[in-house]
Amino acid sequence: MSTIAYGDSKFFEKSVAASFVKAAEAGGFSFGSAFDIDDKLAALGFHSERYSSVTAGGNVVVHPTWASLDLSQFGCEGMVLSLPAVEGFTESSFAEVKGCLVVENLTVFRALCSNSKKGLLVVWGHGRPNEAVRRLVGILDVALSGDAPLLAWSDIDLGGFGIVESLMSVSNRARPVMMGEEDLRAVDASRLLRRKEEYWADMRRFLERHPDSRFRDVAQACLELRGTLEQEALLFEYAQEKVRGLF
Predict the structure, then answer these.
(1) Residue 121 clears pLDDT 60, i.e. is over it
(2) pLDDT the model gives residue 93
(3) 190 and 229 Cβ atoms separated by less than 8 Å
(4) Tens-digit pLDDT profile for residues 75-89
(5) Which residue among 117, 160, 233, 243 is the one 20 to 30 A from 28 at the CA level?
(6) Which pLDDT belongs to residue 118?
(7) Do the beta carbons of residue 103 and residue 112 sit within 8 Å?
(8) What is the pLDDT of residue 45?
């Protein structure tokens, strides 16, 4: 099954999709290693069509075959690139990029684009990476100079773990940033997002099924603190200082 509603309707994602998952679980369906709602829907045969584009911004000039783009001129909104537009990027397109940060949430993308150092490319992945996002990351994996970091920053929760692991499957040089136990414990407990018990059951299953995950320690800390962390909660002096240090 494939539905545009799954891709474009928040109502489907937040209100309807969970009903399919619960019905399947009640009927004894095994989701295997799937640990978040997107994985479970995919196991049921749904294929998300959420966004067929990727958004790029920052303070750098890039050179796809079809133009020369000063991304700083697009401000905090960045430039939306379709998959065909992404295919116009080559290794030489990113010669001036000193580092790339792929982020999950739009608010974080806008903040970073508004206050980015020269040479920083910021990519908004629209949540779970689609084909355009994965293709761009694959090109960057080869195109960036050897000392230019390619970093992925998502929420510290099950969805964020899945997003970054998906990007790391595309790029051997991609690595998570600000998603460790240290970062989780760096914020006041009042900023943590509290979850229902069903969520913590999913977190425990994640730990059981992914004993070698690089997110194992932070997942255990989430369980201990009974909270997860949205990217926006770190977007204060802590995150700004971290980003300045990285680039």
Answers:
(1) yes
(2) 97
(3) no
(4) 999 999 999 999 999
(5) 160
(6) 93
(7) yes
(8) 72
DSSP SS3 for 70: strand
H or E element that contains 4: helix 4-8
- For strand 79-82 and strand 53-58, is the pairing parallel, antiparallel, or unpaired? antiparallel
Q: pLDDT category, 12, cuts 50, 70, 90?
A: low
Task: Annotate 79-105 with b (16+ C-beta within 10 A) or e (fewer).
Answer: bebebebbbebeeebbeebbbbbbbbb
Nearest C-alpha neighbor of 80 from the set 107, 97, 57:
57
Burial class (CB in 10 A: 0-12, 13-18, 19+), 240: middle
What is the C-alpha separation between 73 and 69, in angstroms, rounded? Answer: 8
pLDDT tens-digit map of 157-172: 999 999 999 999 999 9
* Separation between Cα atoms, residue 182 and residue 239, nearest integer Å: 12
Q: For residue 44, which phi and psi values (nearest 5 degrees)?
A: -85, -5
Residues 6 or more apart whose CB falls under 8 angstroms from that of 73 comprise none
Give the Cα separation of 98 and 118 in Å (integer): 8
What is the reported pLDDT for 25? 83
The CA-based angle 243-172-160, given to 5 degrees, is 55
CA 108 to CA 152: how far, in whole Å?
12
Query: What is the distance between the alpha carbons of residues 153 and 104, in angstroms, rounded to a whole number?
Result: 7
What backbone torsions phi and psi does residue 101 show, to the nearest 5 degrees?
Answer: -125, 115
| Structure token pair of residue 84 | 């065909």
